[in-house]
Design a protein that fits this description.
The protein is of the alpha+beta class. It has two domains: 190 residues, Peptide Methionine Sulfoxide Reductase, Chain A, CATH 3.30.1060; 138 residues, Metal Binding Protein, Guanine Nucleotide Exchange Factor, Chain A (Beta Complex). 33% of the residues lie in helices and 21% in strands. The protein is elongated and about 75 Å long. The N and C termini lie far apart (86 Å).
Length: 369
């Protein structure tokens, strides 16, 4: 019997073929990172949270004997290390970003095991799949080492990838299949307590990547250093209002402060240290009664942090070297930044344009003109 193909059937078949071709082409672009960070239940759980990661499989790598079992590997005599195979889309996340996520969830300084799990089968390692991966990993480890965020030297091995053996089925997605047992093990292992100590207890709610920390460190190193005087000297040099604002996170009255309506060209510097903060060129009339700016004169001298002193969270602005409370930044400002740095006049000193060179701020004249 002659088969009749309708137009709709042909269109559906063509569409399905196109989807399959697109999916296969996309899968062909995927890359793999093989990483060992102690217990693979935990490493798998943490790596699957990274956007761009397609799949994570728990298993074993580094040994020679075929088809290793968990019992064999856990003996520590096979040469295998508990590992994960991370499949990721390089169009979404880079190999370095995968490593960044990895390092922020392990102890990379312990080559004798991982937290409560002891033995070489739990030591940290990166199994590189290419010369490029090896180079990226080595460079990133070097930068992390220079950052000095960990309290001991890094001892994460770089090992040429040879073979990955998936672990038994009951190990896959263990954190999802056995959430109670997993959370009990993870807490008892001390992993999260260690990570909180290194990265802070707010690391999950407000994560900062190692790359961000490295770049921030480089920025600080490139800055002209300023010093914070002793507490006694600060108290002696400031008025009561200036001291309350900068040292006790106080707030001056709106429309009744030195610079809210100042229109003169110049820069505003920290009242305690003198570090440059804002330019008159970026100052605008916000209607709030406090001096407002669209951006700092140099982001390196500004530090932001969450402020939960009221019934909602605000973003506090402090100076980097003096650690003075300056004010807050809001996202209701004008173009081009859309930000409003709402500052306290009492936290700043104004340096008129004609005095900037003499006071050592000549490098910022271009920011005023």
């Amino acid at each position: 019997m002659k088969k009749t193909i309708t137009l709709s059937t042909w269109l559906l078949s063509s569409l399905l073929s196109l989807v399959c071709l697109t999916t296969n082409a996309q899968a062909a672009d995927y890359q793999t990172a093989t990483l060992a960070g102690g217990c693979f239940w935990c490493t798998e759980s943490d790596m699957e949270k990274l956007p761009g990661v397609v799949d994570v499989i728990s298993g074993y790598s580094g040994g020679k004997a075929p088809n290793p079992t968990y019992k064999q590997v856990s003996s520590g005599k096979t040469g295998y290390i508990e590992s994960v195979n991370v499949t990721f889309d390089p169009n979404v996340v880079s190999y370095e970003q995968v490593l960044d996520q990895f390092f922020r969830h392990i102890d990379p300084t312990d080559d004798q095991g991982s937290f409560v799990d002891r033995g070489p089968q739990y030591r940290p390692a990166i199994f590189y799949h290419s010369a490029e991966q090896k180079h990226i990993a080595a460079q990133f480890i070097s930068e992390i080492e220079q950052l000095g965020i960990y309290k001991k030297p890094l001892k994460t091995e770089l090992i040429a990838f040879e073979k990955f053996w998936p672990a038994e089925d009951y190990h896959q997605d263990y954190y999802q299949r056995n959430p109670v047992r997993y959370h009990y093990y993870r807490y008892a292992s001390g992993r999260d307590q260690y990570l909180d100590d290194i990265f802070g207890e707010e690391r999950n709610e407000h994560p900062k990547t190692l790359r961000e920390l490295i770049d921030a460190s480089k920025t600080v190193m490139a800055l002209k250093p300023y010093s914070r005087p002793s507490d006694e000297k600060i108290k002696a040099m400031l008025t009561d209002l200036q001291y309350d604002v900068t040292q006790h996170e106080g707030t001056e009255r709106p429309f009744n402060n030195a610079y809210w309506d100042n229109k003169a060209p110049g820069i505003y510097v920290d009242i305690v240290s003198g570090e440059p903060l804002f330019s008159s060129r970026d100052k605008y009339k916000s209607g709030t009664g406090w001096p407002s700016f669209t951006k700092p004169i140099d982001k390196g001298y500004i530090v932001t942090k969450d402020d939960n002193s009221l019934f909602y969270t605000r973003t506090e602005v402090r100076s980097r070297f003096a650690d003075s409370h300056l004010g807050h930044v809001f996202d209701d400002g004008p173009a081009p930044t859309g930000l409003r740095y709402c500052m306290n006049s009492a936290a700043m000193r104004f340096v008129p344009k004609q005095q900037m060179q003499a006071q050592g701020y000549g490098d910022y004249l271009a920011e005023v003109e």
